[in-house]
Batch of 4 targets.
Target 1
Amino acid sequence: MSEIWNLFIINPMTNALLWLTGTLGGNFILALIIFTIITRVIMLPLNLRQQRSMMKTQEMQPQIKAIQTKYKDNPQKMQEEFAKIGYNPADTLTGCLPMVATMPILFGLFQVLRLVLGTTPQALFELTQRVYPWIDLTKLLPIDSTFLWLNLGQPDPLYILPVLVFATMFLQTKMTTPGKKKDDGKKHKGKDESDPSAAMSQSMQYTMPIMFGFFSLSFASGLSIYFILSNLVGIGQGWYTRRVMAKEKEIQAQSKKLQKMGMSASSDEAAAMDGKEATAVSETQVAAKDADSAASDSNGSAQQSSRKKKKQSKRKKKSKR
Amino acid sequence: MTADDQFIYVAYGPAILSYDVANQQEVWRYSPAETNPPFFAPPSVQDGRIVIGDYGVSGGFLSPGSTYTLYGLEIVDNRTVSEMWTDGGELSTDRYVGESTQVDDVAYVPTSDFAVLAVDANTGQLNWRFEAAGAIWSQPIYYEGTLYVTSLGKSVYALNAETGDVLWQTPLVGAMSAAPVLNPDAQLLYAGNYDNKLHALDMATGDEKWVAEAANWIWNAPALDDGRLYYADNDGFVYAVDALDGSPIWEKPAQVAGPIQASPVYADGRLYVASTGDPKEGTGLLVALDAATGLQQWQQTTDSPLFTTPVIVDNVIVVALGQIVNDLLIAYDLETGNQQWSYNPTPREEGN
């Protein structure tokens, strides 16, 4: 097991960091920054999917709860109803994937920093056994482990990094977990008690940052810097996903509006509106083009429904004639 | 591990112990009672006095950073040890890895925080501090008022032992964890380097006189005897060269299984080489070679890798194992390689 861990996690990470350090003229801190960004970018699709899934599930909660209550004695029917609203309980499990996938990187980096900074003879000896032949370790050593007031292989003596780890992780969690709707509290008093997942995500907003902030007191500063950078990327990702989902909501609201108008307005008006809305929809699609297929699905259904309305109004006209 | 007369002194993880080879028994064990720090550096022993630094004690969960302490100990009648002084963690902000050198009443202490410290060996008072360009894991070597120092910062230094002033500095390509070896007759200093070379420098000026090649990093100091230099590398090769010009003596280098971190030891026409053995097996190896030809005479496999230079005491060669599987120390007959005794320090309540 340890050989597999070394072969697929520790050795590639160690060599990637060393290679980056060499490429960047021996600047280890810059190498660590780029390494963090690369790992976050690799994880981005998975993270985005998780965040979208969480937010959608959160929004569907009232419907999910209603179905659960209604069909509590008929699991098969419950699943069918879930499918109708586009909810798949298995998504809750796949939502954990990004966190599970980042764990090896996190644990690995803990080991890799100790190795790469080679602050002890044992670590340096171990490093020589792991370095790929194309890395010139003789040239790279000794790796400069100092950055500002920090020794990257040791904890921050001024406690600044643990505070930053806490703050950035708190913000990241805030950005990437679904917000608590204000009216929910009024409509469903004691909702958190009856909705464990929401309660859990709310408590995670505080417990995770506090936990990691405390850990950072004894972590090597290099690892704390990885956390901070990683959290900053996460904050950016959260902001982006929220923005895309807001656009989607806008689209859905517009399509609902269209449906209502199609019921009441004349066919000519509907056709005229249709053109405008279709343009608006396509513009929004461009803005949110890489967001997800769900968005395009909803756009498609909006366009389909307006086409149906057009046909219906034409048929009405013909029948009047 | 160091030796003095019939005693060997081992810094092994939680303590320093003295072992009487002649009587095959542990004499004393020292570990600071409150902190129980790990020790890595070989103890420097002179005139019943030990100077050693520890590997650091963490400040605890809420207190980042570690404290690294330097100790002065006194051996009383070879039976017990007592603490003379400590620096209270004031002198270094990083680990003590290399062995100190004591000359008269001054101890020259290498530190991982890029410094050589000259301290009063009786009081711990700091005389001077020299800052190098990298960590110093090797023992500083003293000769006639000059201190020769190699560093991971890729330079060899000659310092005025009285003041710490730099007399000369020679930058090299690779880092060095090997202590320099002096050949005053030839006015040469030898330094094994991570650039796969053994460098011979002029002791007076630091100018490079010649280099001898190796296949991989040279971790530790060469052995010098009778105009010959023996050194080993990280690929397990052992070399013999002429100490004056670096020309090879053996037809081809001898090969030992596994990377070699310890210095070769020469005695009575034999060269003893401790290796880390096969990393996958997790075993170590002690090999005796004919110093004239490089041909193997005997070998012994140990339970764990050998990182430490063996010592020869009382007609046996003693190795300290990297991890205690069954034993900490094993002694082998110099001629036959047969195991003579072994010693496993039984766990006990640490403290003075």
Target 2
Amino acid sequence: MENNFFGEYKVPIIHKFDYLKPKSIDEALTVLAQSKNPAILAGGTDLVDMIKENVVQPDVVVDIKGLDALNQIKFENDTLFIGAGVTFSDLIESKIIKEKYPVIFEIAKTVASVGIRNRATVVGNICSALPCMDSGPLLSAYDASVTIAGQKGTRNIPAAEWFIAPRKTALQKGELVTGVSLPYPKVKHAGCWIKLGRYTGEDLAQVNLLILAMADGTFRISFGAVAPVPVRAKKIEKLINGQAITPSLIEKAKQLIEEEIKPITDVRATKEYRMHMAKVMFERGMNAAISRLNGCGPEYGTSVI
Amino acid sequence: MKKEIKFNLNGEAITLEVNPNEVLLEVLRDRLGAKSPKCGCDKGDCGTCTVMINGKTVRSCLVLAIEIDGQEVVTLEGLMDSGLTPLQKSFIEHNSFQCGFCAPGMILSATELLAKNQKPKREEIQEALSGNLCRCTGYTPIIDAITNLTK
């Protein structure tokens, strides 16, 4: 035991488990199928903490960092594939991301801090499926699908069906998420990501918002951290798609936010504050996304809140 | 349950038997004597346990020791083969420590930043250090130490 700076005794992990680092996806799937309560380890920034807190008590930890096929960022057939081993730092440094999906760069820059981003993965983030995750709105706004390998083969689940409840996803026992696929929108578009935290850097979100503005006058709007799962704001999209974006339309859309999201009060913010800020963020995000679509607006990575 | 791992710690080849549930931070401090990484929050928020794996900073409290088989680990001790680094000297000149608990993590995070970006803007320094908490200095002397070095 170690006495830390605050005088608390830090106890090492007491729970015992086995560790395996498979060399192929098939080997990983065999272990996952044969073990009672396996845990999949990528970056470990959530998993190791959850094991320490006894939230997760695996009999075996399956480390997927040795699976090279999962460490790829690929752009093929107008679809971006982010493998399960890809970290947020990999995304920030990726040329494909900067050129084709700059808003993913903008998102990744707001995830925790460098030391976490060097380990944490997008897929791990959506598998932990905490309401405050930063990757939820990304999947939801891009109509992404989650690719899952299992012993019976591979299946794809749309983002809307992936998130079931906090910490609960459509992943079944024995399955492994190999990556996520984000179809490139067919028309010219721009995006804006806003993460509201108590301070800039190293905080979990109070409200997250991703807006994609398309050249055909449609929008995709997704909120995070204001409901059990990411919220694709379909009512707002229906109201504003194809319309001239006037201040009065924005006002109407802001009122609709009250029907779309269900924020709660917790240690990070009250529900009233979250609701109020969701409206402020929506207005600023719309302005920024539309400006970027028109070739101006703030550079990607600049916070508008 | 114990498994043998081989890795490089500060330039030295290490072979060690570890249990899968041993955390890298404990192994570094309690078994290998590398005391620069500290246990602060023990959940990845404070950055005092920062070490580098293959040149990238990580939170050693959130890494299982068994994961570093075949990897290269550097703690602050490993940067000091020929005495204090210019960054450490700059920290001393700017009085960037008070209690010193955050310093190893701060210096490793700043080292990673400077390896990628030799002329970081003040905002970029703040962003790079945002995962390293300091409860004494108010950060200004730390950021000054880094900016003055890159002038």
Target 3
Amino acid sequence: MKTQRFCDGEERRLNWLITRKLPNTWKRIGWAIFIVSLVLILLNRFIDINHIVFKSILKNTMLVGLLIVIISKEKIEDELVENLRSKAFSFAFIMGVAWVLVQPLLNYLVSFLIKPQDANYQDLGDFQILWFLLIIYLTIFWFLKKRNS
Amino acid sequence: MKNTLKVERAILNLTQEELAQKIGVSRQTINSIETNRYVPSTVLSLKLSMLFNKPVNDFFTLELKD
């Protein structure tokens, strides 16, 4: 009896953790953080501050912005939205893994064909992987929502 | 799975928006169910059943491919 209660409690807590989302108003905050970071990154390129710490902070805030957008609720968060979310997540995950495996190989092949002496195999950086995952998720989720509206 | 949600909705003279509000989902969800793009959960089906005052089997029917 005691073990059953403990298991139920654990399941409730796990469920709470998995299904937790930010309120819908956070979506705007997420987009604002993303856009400001993106603009600053572009400005950084033009005015050439080129500070490595500044640049990596901006890259991270851009990812944080997108993450906030993703974990914010829709205006009406119902079971269809949950369904579309899980479809978009699974597709983004599979595409992400395929991208990590294939993209460095493609890069190597292209550089080998253009300039064989300079060709070197390089793995993707964490920013590129996360950026790709978040963008693919958002695109697929948007597309699925559009299709169901 | 086929459904006659549109017919049941018409009997009650409800728009998609009104039906959605009554069972606490979005209009898009009702539209997706009606166009067979989305199969609702048991909870949602039972909510619809309560609203239409009919068993679920009356407006959701399995097809051969199911």
Target 4
Amino acid sequence: MALTMFGLLASPVQAADITIKVRVQNQVKDEATGKSTKEPIAGVKVVVTGADGVVVAEGVTDDTGLAAIVVPAKADYTVTLDESTLPDGFVLADGESERAVTEDNFVTDSVTLNFFTGNAERTSIGYWSQLAQRLADGARFGLILAMCAVGLSLIFGTTGLTNFAHGELVTFAALIAFVLNNERGWSLLVAAPLAIVAGGMFGLVTNEAVYAPLRRRQIGLISQMVVSVGIAIILKNVYLAYFGGRVKAYAAFNRQTCTELGPVCVTPRDLTTAAISLLLLVLVGVALQKTRIGKATRAVSDNSELASSTGIDSQKIIRIVWFVGGMLAATGGIFRGLDEGVSPFLGANLLFLMFAGITLGGLGSAFGALVGSFLIGLFVEASTLGMPIMPGADWPAPFDWLHDGVPSELKAAPVYVVMIIVLLVRPQGILGRRERVG
Amino acid sequence: MLAAFSDMNWQLIATATLTAVFGVDAMYFAIAAIGLNVQFGYAGLLNFGQAGFMACGAYAIGMTAHYWNISFWWGIPMAIGYATVFGLIMGIPTLRLRSDYLAIVTIALAELLRLIVRSVTFKKYFNGSDGINGFGKTFTEETPFNPSGKYSLWPFDQNANLFGRVMLLLIFSVASVMVGRMIADRLRGPREKLRVILPVVIFALVMLGAKQTEYGGLGFKSLIVGWLVVFVIGALIYMLMRSPWGRVIKGIREDEEAVRSLGKNIYSYKLQALILGGAIATFGGMMFSLSRGSVQPDNYSRDTTFFVLTALVLGGLAKVTGSIVGPMLYWGISQFISVFLFELTQAWGGRVEIFGVPLITSSSQIGAWVQGLLGLMLVLLMVFRPQGLFGNRKEMALDGR
């Protein structure tokens, strides 16, 4: 290949001009309308190198942002944009200043490449501010996840059931709130509390209609787990049939501008949901430690028979756990829906992260679920940032992730790695006790 | 209302249902269900990541074309290698722990595998969310069947040759005798007579059903080869479970401590069962992707695992016959509900309402209804007949820890 290239370079006699057209534009997205506008950038230097690394041609963009560079033949080239010639404050949107052109790209006599600049502000933010922002987002997500997971963990603790339909319980209230808010036109401040109570009732009904009879018939825990899988399938498809598969946003609190708060920027909505989540979780923690019902719940979790023999009505405790767990899951679902939009898969997509959080914290321990899920939420958001102090910037994936951060499409991957390491090293989790395992 | 029923195309419903009973979906589900049966039915391991193992097989075949550029036959050893690695990653951290840990980790890792193969980051290897398409042509094109022809499993079909006729009759009669005797042993009454009558009745039903089937010639070869794979693997597992190894596996399900006290390494046996079941499931993924010449990452979501589980529970756990007949009936039921609801919606003018409650307002809802009803079937089976059609209630791992 290199020889052919060299031969072609030596005899620059060509019938038609083979050109690589490079267009450089600045892309500005208007946050309010969601539309983006493009403006040409002039005076940007572009260098074309051949497959052997020798510079073949150069060009500079004109007023229309276009540089037409004549190349000797249809072959493989690398087109490099000289970032130092970009006007001050402009950065390439994807950070990729090099583009490869292969022989196959020349369908006609020319190839057009588009470079976009934009997001100049975001990349100019320092690493530590970015990290602070991610940690703030992660903490918020961790609180939501913890709310969803506490119910799952309490249900597991008191009944032994690993509820695979818990994600659908989370989705339920988010959908109810959506219908009330968007289709009935009620304020979300009214719709959300109603939906949360409905979520609690839904949990209670699930227990009364399905799991309580199964327990009375002494059907094994694995059977109950498979039943919960079936219920998850039923609920997901009912949601899908009536709601459709698309992600939809609540009408209320939809667009908000964020306010600076130290190094991070949060919207009033996010600040409120985080505060409510924190308050609810503290309440649950205090209730578990201090109140009679909370103590009884922990007693049933530890040893159901022993608790019953001291006069605790374990079935009543289980009903309370389903109701409160359902309400917490509902709150988490609505808050998540405010963040990411509502879809039938909202809760199911969180289920694995909840499991990871519960495993990390210790299966069956409510405080473990709380701490574990919070850490998982934090970790998921932070992992996409990476650590510039680590080596491996040019290593192949996944080894470059330590340096560059995890691609956001795979941000769940490190969570599963953590989960497996926890199971290998300390299967009882951070707060679990050894005899629970095995 | 009744007039609407007579407007529906019942011939179409019958053909679609019976075609699905013997179809590609039932075939690859049966392979995956035999694998799940080794893990769940015989060893009592609750593997919720069977879709991940199936994806191992499908992507092993796909990658031979997309990434390695070698003959697709290399996909078989590669699939078994992938399944072994995948099984080790799942099993090593969890098999010493309680069974719910295995369920959680397997379902999470299978989902992670799907995220990885559909990611842009690893597009070089797996071609992202487009999946890998147009491979295995050497397999599908070298076919004795006319690609544009129509074929059925009716042994006296005009397109069938002598070999095909003899093979079909042989397989149908052997299968009928096996299934018939199994049902007869399970029923009260004159067992000796039933052991003769039931196989004949089932043979007649299978022949009648086979007459209704209709397959395109293009995928017919992979269908035939796939069912042969089902029967070969099924026979091997049937024998394996009567070997000393199989008895240890079943012993672990019944009482781990008892087997441990005999000096067996439980952990190692569980790991072997998990990997064996996974390696079998890869053949399901391979046959499915070969029959279409295409691998799609989203075919291997957690729903696939759940529906393989449903099909297995329907047939009956810890029975090879159950793991083959279950998927056939599962797809028959699924296709029946689907086409029935479609025809019903058509006959009732695009809307199904019962007592004023709108159940179906557009045909795009039918898929969700079908899956929801199948989920309901899983719940009802688990509650009222956990042994499924052929299983033995005493031989159930479901009441374990």
